[in-house]
Amino acid sequence: MAVALAVCALAALALATVALLPALRSRVALLRTRIAAAPEEDIEAYDPGRERRAEARARDLLRSCVSEEDWEMYRDLGFLRVWGAGGRSAEGQRPAPSYAYLVYPHKPIVAYVPQSSRLLSEYCVEFPDRERPYGSSRLPASDDVLAKWLALIADERSLIASANLHLAGRQLDPDAVRADIASLARWERRRAEQRARDAAAAGAGSVGAQ
């Protein structure tokens, strides 16, 4: 009985294979046609190192545009802090800005209150790279940060007015953003302490020289 069942199963498998064979051949032929029709120059032009080189150039450009402190902030933390223009007084002074922005690559801009770390809003803006012939239309990460930074510095109101506004936490984890704000505060304290040590060392050196 078992032998008969095995023979029947093999026969059924053979019949199914024969029935499916034309469909499989048709699919293989279609795939070969699509591959043959694909433009060879596009395949040959693809460069897997393009993304890395584009990001390296973008980082160089960002570094040349922002201050040394902002560059080191982005290098060390992966985002930029931009003070809100609304914190400036009539004379252009800003002893205590009322709000600021965190600018991430390919993420919403986050507005927050520096004194309390209270998150205010998320602003979604997009700067596509319309010059790239293939691949992702997104700008390299550092170019995206630079575009947002320039837009905020040059015309904050226009950028915010044109952005998609969401409550904080819509796309970004609020706890993660607060952790970034805390990391920024620690980073600034370390920089201030290092500047104080450097100033003390310079002062001691000048006294010793006398």
How would you describe the overall organization of this protein?
Helices cover 60% and strands 11% of the residues. By secondary structure, the protein is α+β, with helices and mostly antiparallel strands. The chain has one domain (50-200). It has a five-stranded antiparallel sheet, sandwiched between helices. Strand 2 (100-103) and strand 3 form a beta hairpin. The protein is globular, with a radius of gyration of 29 Å. It starts with a helix and ends with a helix.
Q: Using DSSP, what is the number of strands?
A: 5
| Mean pLDDT over all positions | 79
Helix content: 55-70%
> What share of residues are in beta strands?
5-15%
Q: How many separate helices?
A: 6
| Radius of gyration from the alpha-carbon trace, in angstroms | 29 Å
Q: H/E series, N to C?
A: HHHHEEEEHEH
Shape, per Cα inertia axes: globular
Class by alpha and beta content:
alpha+beta
Spatial order of strands in the largest sheet: 1-2-3-4-5
- For the termini, the CA-CA separation is 109 Å
Main sheet makeup:
5 strands, antiparallel
Contiguous low-pLDDT stretches (5 residues minimum) are: 2-21, 38-44, 88-92
Number of domains: 1
Distinctive features:
210 residues, alpha+beta, 6 helices, 5 strands, globular
